[in-house]
Amino acid sequence: MRLRTWFLTALVVFAAQLPGRLYAQSVGSIVGVVSDRSQAVVPNATVTAVQNGTNLTRTTTSSTTGSFTLPLLPVGTYVLSAEAPGFEKSSTQVTLDVGQRQEVNFTLNVGGLATSVNV
Asked: Which among 29, 81, 97, 101 could disulfide-bond with 91, CB atoms 3.0 to 4.6 Å apart, if both were Cys?
């Protein structure tokens, strides 16, 4: 009787963990750093990943060290972009595989200054 109870308990615990394990195996993450041409980090840059085909969109902001993380992305091909005020937007295409931690670093070019005159 004890063996049967132990077996059923082990089976229930394993079954409860299975969906999380399967989900974890169908995702990946994208990490990186946003900097400018002089290699100075760009904090508060908006980094966006848009999955081709589904248009699933995930957005994050770079930290004070310029680093960013987009975790738990479904596998697939993404258009990844980074933009910040005063800089030109930069984009690239990335293919993310199962369990992969893809590193993508951006180097932003200084953009033209917009002038606005209010009368």
From this structure: 81
Amino acid at 8: L
Residue ranges of the alpha helices (H) in the chain?
A: 2-24
Q: What is the pTM of this model?
A: 0.74
Q: What whole-number distance in Å separates Cα of residue 119 and Cα of residue 117?
A: 6
What is the per-residue burial (b if ≥16 Cβ within 10 Å, else e) of 6-34? eeeeeeeeeeeeeeeeeeeeeebebebbb
| Gap between the Cα atoms of 27 and 35, Å rounded | 27
What is the distance between the alpha carbons of residues 116 and 119, in angstroms, rounded to a whole number? Answer: 10
Residue 25 has a pLDDT of 59
Residue 95 contacts by C-beta under 8 Å, 6 or more apart in sequence?
Answer: 76, 77, 78
What is the phi-psi region of residue 47: left when phi exceeds 0, alpha when psi lies from -120 to 50, beta otherwise? beta
Contact 19, 91 (CB under 8 A): no
